[in-house]
Amino acid sequence: MLWDWLVAGILGALVGLGGIISRYRDEPFYVLRTIPALFYMLLNAAVSAFALYLAHVFQWDFGMSTPESIRWMQVLGAGFGAMLLIRSSFLTVRVNEEDIHIGPYSLLQSIFDAIDREVDRVRAEARASSVSRIMAHVSFQKAYMTLPAYAFALLQNLDDEAQKEFGKLVETIYKTPIDDRTKALLLGAQLLNLVGEDVLESAVKGLGKHIEADSEDAQLPEEDS
């Protein structure tokens, strides 16, 4: 029986891990070292254990007939069903054009907000330095179509919806009345969010002179003193 609880908890934690990785695709393993992310995984494990307890109390058999099959269906149902329970809302109230969720979902959103703040605080300076270095010689006018297309091609599992949303962001940058250098940095920052630092750097190096800014427009990143 102890193994049942352990397996259900591990499955719940893995479901939480998958949620974190899908949400923070550029630096998923860095995020996993933050306290809110670890708490989120532990919360998923605890909810899975609680779901298994409910399955035992109410003797859910999931349509199975043998004791062994019922046992494992309870474990699997508890492990993979934790996310559904955490994401549920008892009530949704609309206040000032905004939906307010009452229930476990509000706790989930609070945890993700805490992870967002923690990651943003620690990563902001490093990300700015990386984008400035990688995009130092890149022209936005030359790169805004080819660089994203090439970077996306290097990835295997980037969905169409994410690419469409990125296209809208690039269109906004394109229409903003700012200089080419700043636009290039904004393009790099948005790509970094989606593909990560290594892929972005590989894509820029791969395209080379095809997206290189004219010498008078290029601006090297400042070196740390």
Q: Would you give an account of this structure?
A:
α1 runs parallel beside α4 and α5 crosses α9 (180-195). This protein folds into two domains: 2-110, no CATH class; 135-211, no CATH class. The protein has ten helices and two strands; from the N terminus they run ααααββαααααα. The model is unreliable at 218-225 (pLDDT under 50). The protein has a two-stranded antiparallel sheet. The longest helix has 31 residues, at 104-134. With 225 residues, it is mainly α. The N and C termini lie far apart (60 Å). It has helices at residues 2-23, 28-31, 35-57, 67-86, 104-134, 140-143, 146-154, 160-175, 180-195, 197-207, and strands spanning 91-95, 98-102.
Properties at a glance:
225 residues, mainly alpha, two-stranded antiparallel ribbon, 10 helices, elongated, disordered C terminus
Question: Short description, anyone?
Answer:
By secondary structure, this protein is mainly α.
Q: In what range is the share of β-strand residues? A: under 5%
Shape type: elongated
Multimeric organization:
single chain
Counting DSSP H or I runs of 4 or more residues, the number of helices is: 10
Secondary structure: elements and pairs:
Elements: H1 2-23, H2 28-31, H3 35-57, H4 67-86, E1 91-95, E2 98-102, H5 104-134, H6 140-143, H7 146-154, H8 160-175, H9 180-195, H10 197-207
Antiparallel strand pairs: 1-2
